[in-house]
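U., I forgot to send this yesterday:
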Amino acid sequence: QLEEALKENPGVPLALPEEYMWQISRIPAFQARISCWSFLLNYKETATSCGVMFSEFTKIQRAVRNSQMLQKLLALILAVGNYLNGGTERGQADGFDLETLTKLDSVKDNVVQSRDARHLIFEMFFCGAQDMGQLAKESSASFYDR
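Result:
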């Protein structure tokens, strides 16, 4: 735009900010040079930040992988899901997608409408059921309409 303005009005001098922009625009590969300098100046801070985030992610990943209680909770969810889906092609699954966890609230109790599968699962989980599979069969009867 500055170049067009100069061609249209060759005798009109540029103001100081426009003159500065005009001179800067004449430097070869100006944008690439500025990007390079910005990268170099911010590298240490960015690398430190990424390192901290990676370290936190690694701790979380290790905690999830090594959590016996999480494994038991997921096994209970699978057992309840297999019971509720018994007799269908989705019954007796070996696993489930994590997205399934967001759908647990859609499975309502036939007796108490304000309860859903999450209530059942967490009651079973926190009551410390020894035989999760058998307890899933017994406790989820009110969720299953035959």
